[in-house]
Design goal:
The protein has 226 residues and is of the alpha/beta class. It has one domain: Spore Coat Polysaccharide Biosynthesis Protein SpsA, Chain A. The chain is globular and about 55 Å long.
Length: 226
Amino acid sequence: MLAIIPAREGSKGLPGKNIKLLAGKPLIAYSIEAALKSRSITKVIVTTDSEEIAKISMDFGAECPFLRPSELSTDTARSIDVYKHTIDWLRANESLEVESMAILQPTSPLRTHVDIDAAISLFYERNADSVVSYCREHHPIRWHKYITEDGKFENIFQEALNNRQVERPSFFPNGAIYVFRSNLMEQEKYYTSNSYAYVMPRIKSVDIDTLEDFEYVEFLISKASD
């Protein structure tokens, strides 16, 4: 299976985060190494608009056969268009027809090859259209509220939740793994009625967006190596 690691140069929350050194290695290296170690992944491509990110990615074993066009590297560019571009490029330049793929965000460095293989195994076992990694929400869903600009509470749910709904655990996508059939790109969606969740523990679900996230993951890595 093809693994695509999207890593554009710009980042508002933490500039340069994709190649910022995390415990001695560029952040993106963790996702590349996990993909290369996976028994299910046969090709690892980093799609980026940065020559520096491309060079570092290739140093760690990924392929970077092109630089992403500028129109696909803005804050408003859609991820789905980035994946379409990669698929189209491979078809046109390597005569490769991609039937399914795994998207591995570089901002999830605690996701391992074991997680990747487990998610892909679930994808094949269920003959799924997609498998997406999720994490259990530790706050009861009934506590969730919108907060208005003037600081007041606003209900998310228009109707009161019954006891059964209140007790059921809820889950959120952690951004670590997306496995899906490439034909979903034409439909411009990630989920169908034949989509499944690969549930990951909270400790492996940190998605780095800020310096605080980065420092927390650095702490977790250092603690694990003690």
